[in-house]
Amino acid sequence: MERAELISAVELPGSFTDVLYLTNQSQTPPEVRRLLKQQKLSCRILPIEKFFEVRNGFDLIGTVIIDTKDMDTLQQQKLARIIESLEMENIGVILLTDRVELPIKSFSLAPAKASFSMTSTVKSVSTEELWIRISANLAYRKKSSGITLKPAAPPRRAPGVYKNKLAEQLCMTGALVDNLAGQLRLAGLVQQDFLPTQLPNSDEVRWATVFLPAEWVSGDIYNIVRIDEQHIGFYIADVVGHGMPAALLTIFLKQALVMRETIEDNYRIFSPAEVMKNLNVRMAAQKLSGYQFATCCYCLLNTKTLQLTYARAGHPYPILIRPDEQPEQLQVRGSLLGVFEQAEYVQQTIQLQHGDKLLLYSDGADPFIGRVHDQSGFGFDENFWKIKDLPIVEMMDEFHTLTQEQEIDPSEVDDITIVGLEILR
């Protein structure tokens, strides 16, 4: 590719074009131009405002790079329409942008047929990463369109042909793996969008959390919600296993766990036992394949009386840490979610007081908190004893450090989530 061609308002590509570059600039950045030339890819430049004038030529476009530098407000509004139209044609998209106010979250739910590269400047993107994304998009596009992939260079003798084909297959496999990793990273970001962005801290109660997925996505999810002026509901749910199947189910749990109901102008707050029962019914009704089930612990805190009511479904017991006393497990029975549709759940209530701390955690935190021993029952870990008296925020910071420093057998690595609260006064 000696030069990038500029498509006019009426000119459509007459042959397959590997890369369509949408931009407000007169040419592609030198880094991109050099990469495309090295990889012998054809490229055409099109002004963003003229994109829809070449709609009839979409079948001859491999992948699209959109450079949003100096994009005005009207063009920003059209960006979602452009991406949507490309997705409908199974054309992968790579976005280069330095505008953080772009509505990126709306793009993060795109299907796997498209890929997005969000970065501050073109220079901050390594050419290797950009090439991987381009090649993965082209491989998918050409395969879905029935277009034969041309070899990088004409073969000179038979051994070279096989060597080139093997290298090409390895390159394509690596590109697809990296593209999948990119999609998983985006899925992880989407999942974290479902977590609370602000904690309901006050002069009376301080909150802190730890959320450490074992992979890009997590089988854990938590939430802390102010239900009304004096009630806060909070929980951790843990789907059996981890990875993408478990992560998908956490989104369902987030939507299915309902803390109150509204009747005309009034509302009623569900008790923790009701929350668990209703969630179990909804999950069992899905008749999920693969015998998937989950655990959960839900608590309801009255911020005025400091009464805490809790219920659990097969989840690790909450831990109460009271000044000058040994930590205590708050035991209450409750079966797993999604196994028995008619399961009943019970709840307990305790009175919190100044200086108390409460921890909810998923079983991935067991190695750092404590274990059940055959002879003596449950025992707290030595490192947990060292940090239990710290203020809740510092305690969570130290706990995070412990997870990074302590060696865990790879077979025991799991998602780790902790929700902690401290009564300040």
Give the SSE order as H and E letters: EEHEEHEHHEEEHEEHEEEEEEHEEHHE
| Count of separate DSSP helical elements | 9
The CATH homologous superfamily of the largest domain is termed: PPM-type phosphatase domain
Approximate helicity band: 25-40%
| CATH class categorisation of the largest domain | Alpha Beta
State the end-to-end distance.
Answer: 70 Å
Give the structural class. Answer: alpha+beta
Arithmetic mean of pLDDT: 78
Beta strand count: 19
CATH topology heading of the largest domain? Phosphatase 2c, domain 1
User: DSSP strand (E) fraction?
Assistant: 15-25%
* Order of strands, widest sheet: 1-3-2-4-5
Number of domains: 2
Uncertain residue ranges? 1-12, 99-124, 148-158
Biggest β-sheet strands, sense, barrel? 5 strands, parallel
Broad shape: elongated
CATH architecture classification of the largest domain = 4-Layer Sandwich
Walkthrough of the structure:
The chain is α+β, with helices and mostly antiparallel strands and 425 residues long. Helix content is 31%, strand content 25%. It has 2 domains: 187 residues, Rossmann fold; 226 residues, PPM-type phosphatase domain (Phosphatase 2c, domain 1, 4-Layer Sandwich). It is built from 9 helices and 19 strands. The strands form 5 sheets. A 5-stranded parallel sheet has the order 1-3-2-4-5. It has a 5-stranded antiparallel sheet with strand order 6-19-16-13-14, covered by helices on one side. The N terminus is likely disordered.
